Amino acid sequence: MSNFSTTQDHESTGISNQKLAMWLFLSSEVVFFAALISIYLFYKRLFALGDLTPEGLFDIPFTSVTSFVLLMSSLTMVLSHNYYEIKDYEKSKIWIFATAFLGTVFVSGQIYEYTEFIQSGLTISSSIFGTAFFFVTGIHGLHVVIGVVLLIATGSQMGISNSNRIYSLSIESLALYWHCIDIVWIVIFTAVYLIP
Amino acid sequence: MMFQIKHEKDNSKKYIQIAIFLSIITLFEVALFYTTNFNLPAILIILSFIKFVIVVGFFMNLKFEKKLLKLFFLLGFVLSIPFIFILFLERNII
Amino acid sequence: MKTKSKTIYKRPNQKSKFFDLLTTVDHKKIGIMYLYTGFVFFLVGGLEALLIRIHLAQAESTFLSAAEYNSLFTVHGFTMVFLFFMAVNSGFGNYLVPLMIGARDVAFPRMNALSYWIYFFGAVFIHSTLFIGNTAPPEGGYLSEESNLFSNAVAGGWFLYQPNAGIQFSPGTATDIGVIGIIFLGVASLISAINLTVTTFNLRAKGLTLMKLPVYVWMTQVVSFLLIFSLPFITIALFTVVVDRQFGGNFYNVAMGGDPILWQHLFWLFGHPEVYILILPVFGMISEIIPVFSRKPIFGYATLVFAGFAIGFIGFGVWAHHMFSSSIQSLAQAGFGAATMIIAIPTGIKIFNWIATLWFGKRNLNVAMLFSIAFIINFVIGGVSGVLHAVVPSDWQQTDTYFIIGHFHYVLVGGGLFGIFAGIYYWFPHVFGKKLDEKIGKIHFWILFLGLHLTFLPQHWLGLQGMVRRTWWYDKGMNIEFWNLISTIGSLIILISVLVFILNWIYSKRMGEDTEFDPWDGRTLEWSTPLPPPEYNFYDIPKVKTKDEFWYRKYSVDKEDRSISKGNHTEIKKYTLATTLMDTSHIHLPSNSLFPFITGLALPFLGWSLIFRGSFTAVVLLLIGVLTLFIGIFGWTLEPENE
Hints:
The complex is a heterotrimer. By secondary structure, chain A is mainly α. Chain A has a single domain (17-43, 58-194), classed as Cytochrome c oxidase, subunit III, four-helix bundle (Four Helix Bundle (Hemerythrin (Met), subunit A), Up-down Bundle). Chain A has six helices and one strand; from the N terminus they run βαααααα. In chain A, helix 3 (60-85) runs antiparallel to helix 6 and helix 5 packs antiparallel against helix 6 (171-194). The radius of gyration of chain A is 19 Å and the shape is globular. Residues 1-6 of chain A have low confidence and may be disordered. By secondary structure, chain B is mainly alpha-helical. Chain B folds into two domains: 10-60; 66-94. Chains A and C meet through strand 1, helix 1 and helix 5 of A and helix 6, strand 1, helix 7 and helix 8 of C.
């Protein structure tokens, strides 16, 4: 019944239960975010018509930096997994906390951006641009926050018991989740911020 | 680009190389955004797609995984296409 | 690989039957819980339907108020689709899939329990609308004079068309409760779908390659894929509604540029795959029952499986056939119409396969078989009216009339419910070790068959005569009273059949014919266990050589492909029953856990905190919800591994 059984006494795909489950979940998330981004693009034409427009509000340099931070968090995440695979748990723990840190920086950047926009008058109810923008970036942001919580929870357990105990959510699955929200942001950044 | 990621070995150098490549693409995107407006959407989409594929392929290791996982992931995209198509049709984007 | 870690607490072990239910992770018990709970909601949904039918029996009826009527047809839809049908499918799937693939349990037993508890508490949350729901602004008070028990629920149709079901035209908490409840149920289904997929792919017995799987397992797998890829659409859609209703969003606010058609696309992108999610498991059950009672293998196994995949895949390309009378472009309409006709082909292939299995078989027309054959007849009738809707201009006349209601009740009740009863009569001996009584069963069947046709056949011509859906009033001058009365009488006959069934259930559980092993001369692996099965399912995990593995242990084939008994049934039975007395120390089962229950318990509190947003109560509810959720999740992760 273990999640990581590799005995050949049954037919199997050869992919661990948890990894398979996470890929299925991420396939669902792909559809989820595709729908989300499509909703934004569906209404995009109307955004230039309001008082507050994307061109007027967006600070592309700023958001490019936060996007880059998130992209680099994918690097720290894969490094953490890499060191876990070669059983260097000290390094793995460092890189997982680095990932959590970069994720937090990203979210902080978003919160800062939100406060700037809200102060300029853009809210969920002020215009359809406001609704769509906060909806898309907010749902993504929530996913990042959940990811950071999972990273810290996993990272702290790695520190305490100092054994090669496999936790409920393996580093590999967590990494897959984290990379997924990174690549989703690549698409969101392009669709929302960069494309006129 | 025969880029082998072998399990149970230290691939950290390879990952850092990939990250540097991704950073270069990002710099290029930002530069394009500020300098030209020559069919910007198309180029940005292509560059983002390249970044996307690289992260999925190498960081998520999908390039080296079994076909089944590639199928599931691809299925997510394929099944989103009708929706995207209809929305674009509605808004006369296509 | 794993070291035994220090534990602060142990996994619970069953002290009382009640506590065992709360903490069980056994797929069979969870399946039975789904079935019982689902059946309760069948009765609730049926009551809602009866009230509607009693109201419609007369023209210009005031049996129900408009508000009550609107709530009733909405909740009837929600209850039957989400709380009954999907739960029963989950029940059968959970119970049968591990048994059919030779496994001891699913891949993630605690997640399995979690799916059930999310469903349970989601249902509790939705029904809290009876007490705290209102369809008037809060100034009117939660139970103001205009509203009463029946009108305190979400109204406006289960598809919640926006902006009709938005905050401006449907104020009050009732709609929010419905919307949030469905979000919860969606999460339960997604977890279950992932769980069963990993189970089917990774936990099969040795030798059980994919194309040897029973058709039922394949159909359940297609359903899991449908859920994984369609639930995101409804989740996003419901999130947009919550944003619009609770946070002043403008997605469907026409004055600000919102477009109602967006909701329709999102909803039906889920809604259409949903109907295949409902019926494909039933297709699977029929595909298991008919071969057993025809004593022949299923005709065209591979085509059945691939037709299932075709239905699933094409099902993602037909959703706008629910929107033919909306503003979508003609080209799109034509495309969806064509796709809808195409999807009838794989469905038709399945029908032919079932008929071919029955043909020249040594048929045993017991109750399960009667329900299965009636399923085919009823489903074809329903399917034929469905193909009529695929013709776009024809649908412009039929849509939103009782013609459509006739169509989907034929496929869902005539098809789905009959298939479910077939499954119940077939697998009841497996779960309880007793057979349901055949004589009472036949009475049940014929009364239901009569009731079905009496209720829903007239609805076809009522619809064509202009009777519209979701409308509580029709004038005397419309001349549609007579057939409405017939339809209502039919629904009362259905009620009688349900009572007969309940009678059969109660009688048979006490005095039914005992069966300890393989009463039907079954073909698939679940029949190789003693009945009822022990907690560990199989004493030895079977080694599989062929499709219908269990059958070919009892029968060999001659040159003309006829099955010849090996004469070893008594031996197999003796050995199997003897294993219940043997030492089971080599068998390791997942231990019970309370944390799925606790995690599920958090959800209503989180939902209520959003409903009562802005008040002090909401903060308290939120704290309770978040605390319970944290205890649930952290307790879960820190629990010791199975002992």
